[in-house]
Each structure stands twice: as structure tokens, then as C-alpha cells.
Predict the structure.
Amino acid sequence: MSVLASGGFWAFVGVVAGIYTILTLGLQVQFGFAGLLNFGQVGFMALGAYTMAILVVKEGWSMWLAAPLGVAAAAVGGALLGLPTLRLRADYFAIVTIAFSEIIRYVATNETSLTGGSQGTIALGSVGTASQYNGAWTTFQTHVQHKLGFSSADATMLVIVWTVALVLLALTWVALRTPWGRVLRAVRDDEDAAASLGKNVFAYKLQALALGAALAGVAGLFYAWEFSFFSPDDFEPLLTFFAWMILLLGGLGRVWAVPVGAGVFGFIFAGTRFLNFPPFTWVASDERAYIRLIIIGLIILVLVVLRPQGLLGNRREMVLE
Amino acid sequence: MTSILELEDVVRTYGAVRAVDGTTFSVEQHSVTGLIGPNGAGKSTLFATIAGSLKPTSGRIVFAGKRIDRKPAHRVARAGVVRTYQGARVLTRMSVLENLLLGTKGHPGERLTGTVFRPRASRDFERRTRVRAADLLSLVGLEAHAHAYAGTLSGGQRKLLDLARVLMLEPSLVLLDEPMAGVAPALRGELLQHILAMRRDRGITFLIVEHDLDFVMQAADRVVVMNEGRVLAVGTPADVRANEDVVDAYLGAAR
């Protein structure tokens, strides 16, 4: 427990919360502001991470060029997914998105020559070569660490991730306050009314989908850098649903609810590791991990009943008809 | 008189059902034209077809000399044909003012690229839009509610907001879908005066679907009667009232 309770551990929890913040911010743009029920967010995260890693290891590109291309790949993926599907009804669209993210994962698992297959990024390079995509990142992180005078790499990553997350949060907050964001909310609340006011509903949905996907791509990059290795198993649909939990915890339609939700989620998720006292010790420690999910599920259940708008949501906006 | 809208043999089917079955009529410029008919006559389908939210199965719809029957709804609206919905579809979770600010054409700030690369043009446009919105708010007497959620307005106030929002778009032809439904009697006269003033001061043409026949006879200078997807009669309110077929269609079995 003392190891788990160390600063390094909590810095790691903070880094993961930061990555989740960026991932969930994408969902907030898509669902909270444009009404798109996207259950495939993790697929865009995978697109970002894999594009970056493949370009660096297989094509020998600079990571600084490959990273923005990873984000672009996620955005293009969002747009391509949206073109044929955004005209579907919300529930059908939701099913297509979850299928999309599973397709991405299965392709990553089976296209071994492209992605390294189920072995993950370790198998990206040719046999016998060390295939690292994050050399340039480690150099950068060490550089930042020296500048900051930090002793821990975890704390440095924490600062970097949250700096980026805060910049993205602020940019999104500003964008949604423009007339563009106003139209987006109109599309969310009543597509027909928006169209009758001359708004190209499809174009706005497509933009929201692509932007949210790009944010997932950024989250994918940080995920890749933080763990130095990833495989298709890292992009299971569960991750998308974690992001949805964060969204509901924080509240819909509020940009700053996302980091709050991610912080609370991260704290509960990590904190429930310390449940090594009765009655939790009655179940085996490996099964205890599931208790965390049960607890988070219960919290969301209680929240939905007592505070359906989330921690920072606006209740009045939920009940107006 | 020149016509602003011409429907030529417009058909719209849902599977085997011909909801609009070869409708032909025209709407004169600056007129208030009433569109009446019993339930299921095809009025709502026809409205949606004119507004572009439904594509006609066949036939032509010409607005101000240009075909609009293949355009999507937002392009029809931008061309100057703006519709309202039954029960005034105001955006309840947005403020009254925000509802009005949505009624713009060519706002650079409504494009993501415009917001980013043309911030000054976007700000200027937004400022002008706000001035227009404030004028229209006071025209319909909702200025005190500018910052309230539109969802807090009464049914009649929502109709007024809807009308003001339509005016923001500077349309040439407005399609009103049951403007009097759910409006308190006290507000009906006011709504009618607004419609007549909008025609007089802004040269707007109206096509109105309405079940309240007293209102139609009072407001309209021409009435189109539909039944079973076809035009049954066209004429002045007095002509239509005297038409045997119309009386049959409305009273049908009762006679």
C-alpha cells in the first residue's frame, strides 16, 4: 500500500486522468454539443496512436511530423465514418460507431505486417530490431524535466499532459462560444428547426464528429507516449465507456465538467485499489479489481437518480421542453 | 399579379400512399394564401415538400423563377422560403436572444474557418445581427425575456419568437404551419396584426396552413382547398365558402 500511495502512483493517476480528459472532451463536443451518440471513440484513439507509431518505426519519420498526422488520421477517420452514417437515426449511428471501433481493433490485431498484430508495437519493426516509436518523446520529456527541475518523469508527464489538456479545453470552450458553437447547439436540440433556419445540419455534425475524433487522436498519442508500448487490446470498447462515464459524471454540455469528471473517475478508479479491508478482502485480490467497476457503476446510478445533470451540468436545461 | 411560388403536378408518395397526388397551384406575390383541408388532405406533406425536408416523388416546385424541388431544406431556407412548425419549434435550451441570433444568412462566424481566420468580419457581423435581433425583440414585445431560456415562454410567446426568428432571415415567402394552434385568444389578434404588418412593411408573402377557418377567412386573400392529396378549389375566401365541393369535403358524412 505504501508503494501505491506514493507520489509517483498518484502522478500516474493524474496522467491517465489527463488522457481521459482529452478523450472525453471529444465526446463532449460530439454528444454534449452536437448530439452525436458516438460509442466508438476508442477507435479514433487507436487511429492516432497507430498512425504515429507506424510512421515513426516503419517509415522513419520524425515523431514531431508523425504525431500531427496521427491526429489528422483520426479526424479523417471521423469524417469518413460520418459521410455515409450521419444521416442515420441516432441509435443506428451509435451501433455503427461501436462497430467501427471494433473493426479498427480487429484490423490492428490481424494486419500483422502493418501494425505488429496482437503482439503490439513491439513487433512493428523487422525481426531483431528494437522498434521504439517514442525515442524523440523521451528526449523531449527529459528536456522538459530538466527545465522544470523535476526529479520524477511521472510528474513531468503530468505537467505536459495537463498543459495540453487545458489548452484544448480552453480552445474548445472558446470555439463553442462562437456563432459556430451556437449553431452546433441548435443542431443538437432540433435538427429540423436548424435546417429551416438555413443551417447545413449535416456539415455541422460532420465537423463535430471529426473534431471529437481528432481529440481522441491526441489522447491516443499521449497514451502511446505514456506507456511506450501498446497493442490492440489497449483499445477495447470498455475505454469508450469509461469516457462516457466521465462525461455523465461531469455533466453534459459543459466543457469544464470534463476534467472534473475525469479527476473524480480517476480518483475512484485508482483509489478503490486500496480496498484491502473487510468486506473487500473476502473476495480474492484479482477479483477485487472488478469491485472498482461495480462501485463506479453504483456512483453513476446514484448520480443519475439524485443529480442527473452530472456534477457540473445545468439541471434547468434538462427539464425545459 | 405575379406568382412567387408555383407547384406543378407535385406528387409525394409514402409507399403505396399518395399523400400529395398531383397538386398544382400558385401563390401570388405579397398575398396571404390560406391552405386548408380536412385531416389527411396532404397539407403537412406538401409543406415539408416545398420546404425541402421531403423530396417530391415527381413534379416541379418553382420559387421566384428557380426550381427548388431538388434542394435540401437549408438551401431552400437560404433561397428565401422559410417555414415554421406546428407548435413553434423554438430552441428551448437556448436563450430567446440566441434563438434570434440563429436567424442569419452568410454569417462568417458560423463557419469554423470564418471563426478562426476572419474573426473581425465575424465580430462585425455578430454585432449587426444583435442590433437586428434587439429591434425584432421589441417589435414582438419580448425584449424583457431576451436572456430567459426560450423554454420558459408560453405557447403564444413562442409563436411570436418563431415569427421574429423568421423575420431575421429576411424571407420572401413564409410558410406558417398552424400559427393559431395553442395560442391564447387574447394573443390571436396580435399575431394576425403581426402577419399583416409583415406583409405590408416587408413585402413578405405568406402561405398558411390553419384549421381555424375564421382566422383563414379573416387573414387570407386567397384560399387553396386540398382534399385527398389534390387541390379541390382555389379562390377568394367568399368563393371557397360558397363552393359545394368544399362543404362536402369538410362535412362529408355529416350531410
In short: The mean pLDDT of chain B is 90. The longest strand of chain B covers residues 3-14. Residues 107 and 126 of chain B are 8 Å apart (CA to CA). The radius of gyration of chain B is 19 Å.
